[in-house]
User: What shape does this take?
Amino acid sequence: MKLSQLQIGQQGIIKEFTDLEMSVKLMEMGCLPGECIKLERIAPLGDPIAVSVAGYQLSLRKLEASTIELI
Assistant: This one.
């Protein structure tokens, strides 16, 4: 399952990334494999989304979220 497929309140554990270039950016922001990530909010038009990871909230575009595979 991908992060972009979660519903509000659902969570998962980051398994891997499908885009190498994007993965570097995401890991710098705290999205590391093994971290628990929870979908907090979705913007009214569906993009961006707010997630909590590593103790803080992070805003991601759906495209970025679709590169994060969850366990």
Remarks:
- DSSP finds two helices and five strands in the chain.
- Residues 3-70 form a domain with the SH3 type barrels. fold (CATH 2.30.30.90).
- The chain has a mean pLDDT of 92.
- Residues 20 and 62 are 17 Å apart (CA to CA).
